[in-house]
Design brief:
Elements (H helix, E strand, L loop, with lengths): L7 E2 L3 E5 L7 E2 L3 E4 L29 E2 L10 E19 L5 H6 L2 E9 L4 E5 L6 E23 L8 E8 L11 E4 L25 E2 L11 E19 L5 H6 L2 E9 L4 E5 L7 E21 L13 E8 L1
Parallel strand pairs: 1-8
Antiparallel strand pairs: 2-9, 3-10, 4-6, 5-10, 6-9, 6-10, 7-8, 7-9, 11-13, 12-17, 13-16, 13-17, 14-15, 14-16
Length: about 325
């Protein structure tokens, strides 16, 4: 409907698989949708699938359309509050709560992106559990971004289509540099609750994290390393200590107290980490380096440390800043 009044721009969108942070994010002022799934069969369920979940900075909280069938024609709209110039979107397609949930629910295959001036761009997404970037060939000035489902990859269990997170990005450089590669002392394999890889610490999501895989001990001596393609000048480490998924998980699992920062120039520095769930700045002598290894020297155990499944150290976010 109203196709005559719209300018459909074809072949102007490119899909990129890129690191999770390469431009400044524009935070929506409101998120609305054509519908959302409401589990009427389980009114006591505290899991909600409302539109705001699509832009709340968490991949474990998701928007699920509430239409009959597979959700074709359903849409979610991000209000930017004012006209902004945007260059790309980043989409966590499907249900990222876990790999199992991602496979069980529908994912978007074809999508229409509509801007406030009525112009439309169409794009095909990959059927991969990756943060996928939709790069516009030209910057777009708009006060809203509306994503409409045109086609799906069908899940193996549920006929509901899901988006976990959408980021609207401009062209300003982001404060956190993106590592080209990572390493660590070890992490658990992905399970029903998600993955625990080092890449989780610089994805900007508070509910994803790196966790160590030391089956004996509390995580003391474990480490993670961020490696950059070009040297980075920094004077502080930004950190979210512990399991940032929720306060209850943060309290139950282990957090780091002291760490040694080792840099590619051969220098190192010991730092103290605060036992808080909020983002903290950890200052160190200013350096230019192409890698940093964070070794956790002392650890505070959580309230469930007697349970081996909880006696584990996690770090939710970590990145260099100047």
């Amino acid at each position: 409907m109203h196709w005559i009044s719209r300018l459909v721009v074809a072949a102007l969108v490119f899909l990129l698989v890129v690191p999770a942070a390469e431009a400044a994010r524009i935070k929506p002022t409101d998120v609305t949708a054509s519908s959302y799934y409401d589990d009427l069969n389980n009114p006591d369920d505290d899991v909600l699938y409302r539109p705001r979940n699509a832009a709340d900075g968490k991949v474990s909280s998701v928007w699920v359309e509430g239409e009959e069938g597979s959700g074709l024609g359903s849409w979610v709209k991000l209000d930017l509050g004012e006209v902004r110039t945007i260059h790309r979107l980043r989409v966590w397609n499907g249900n990222w709560y876990s790999w199992d949930y991602w496979q069980r629910h529908n994912r978007i295959r074809e999508m229409e992106i509509e801007f406030s001036d009525g112009t439309v761009q169409k794009v095909t997404l990959q059927d991969k559990k990756i943060p996928e970037v939709i790069e516009f060939s030209k910057p777009v000035s708009t006060n809203s971004v509306k994503l409409k489902i045109l086609g799906i990859y069908r899940g193996n269990t549920f006929n509901d289509t899901v988006i976990s997170e959408i980021q609207v990005l401009d062209d300003a450089p982001e404060a956190r540099p993106v590592p080209a590669s990572t390493a660590d002392s070890g992490h658990p394999p992905e399970d029903a609750d998600g993955s625990y890889e080092v890449s989780n610490v610089f994805d900007g999501m508070s509910d994803t994290m790196w966790c160590e895989n030391q089956r004996s001990g509390d995580g003391t001596g474990t480490w993670l390393e961020l490696r950059y393609a070009t040297p980075v000048t920094a004077s502080k480490l930004q950190l979210v200590n512990g399991n940032g998924y929720a306060l209850s998980f943060w309290m139950e699992t282990n957090r780091a107290c002291q760490a040694t920062l080792s840099f590619s120039d051969g220098s190192s520095e010991k730092v103290t980490l605060r036992d808080v769930m909020l983002e903290q700045s950890v200052p160190f002598a200013k350096r230019t380096a192409s890698s940093i290894r964070i070794r956790f020297d002392t650890v505070k155990q959580g309230t469930k440390a007697k349970d081996p499944d909880y006696n584990i150290l996690c770090i939710s976010e970590a990145w260099l800043a100047d």
